[in-house]
Amino acid sequence: MKTNLLHIKNMVCPRCVEAVQNLLVKAGYEPTAVTLGQARLSPSTPVDPKAVAPLLREAGFDVLLDRAEQLTEQIKTVLQEYLEHLRTAPAPLTTSAFLADRFATTYSHLSKVFSRTANLTIEKYLIRMKIERVKEMLSYGEMTLVQIADQLRYSSGQHLSNQFRQVTGRSVSEFRRMLQPDRLSLDALG
């Protein structure tokens, strides 16, 4: 069955969008719009998703054929937007309200589909995303843990610290030490 819309897994950044666009062009297709999780092709170049799957798989992507998998990937993409919403909105929506609004369906339905497909709850997935964002922010060394906690809407730096340890198995301090190479002072060299 040929289609003009591909649902693609593992697209997480603008470079992924560019990579998928380039792969499709190189394979002779005419993408008209490539966004996170989707590629729309020109009506003149429809594709059988099963035929293009090996090409995308080589580059670390995968074609989603199942509706539940497609919805799960869309939820993951919207959760990335939600993290930005948390950071910038004066009074951010709850995760459930944000998703229900974005998908125009109940959070309960979204949660059931996501849990069944991803083998993980939306809440746990969001926590993992937040902790990855925390790692990124810590690696820059520009913000304190309290500032990071505030930006990601944690109730306190301690709450973030506890969740960080729970997810990563190490403390924030241990993580920071890993980021800094061992160096000797000049007077200790000789």
Automatic annotation (TrEMBL):
Pfam families the UniProt entry points to: HTH_18
Top-level lineage group: Bacteria
GO molecular function terms listed in the Swiss-Prot or TrEMBL record: DNA-binding transcription factor activity; metal ion binding; sequence-specific DNA binding
Matches recorded under SMART domains: HTH_ARAC
Gene3D superfamilies recorded: 3.30.70.100, Homeodomain-like
UniProt keywords, alphabetically: DNA-binding, Transcription, Transcription regulation
Position of the signal peptide: none
Location of the HTH araC/xylS-type domain: 73-178
SUPFAM superfamilies in UniProt: HMA, heavy metal-associated domain (SSF55008), Homeodomain-like (SSF46689)
PROSITE patterns assigned to the protein according to its UniProt record, in alphabetical order: HTH_ARAC_FAMILY_2
Name recorded for this polypeptide: Helix-turn-helix transcriptional regulator
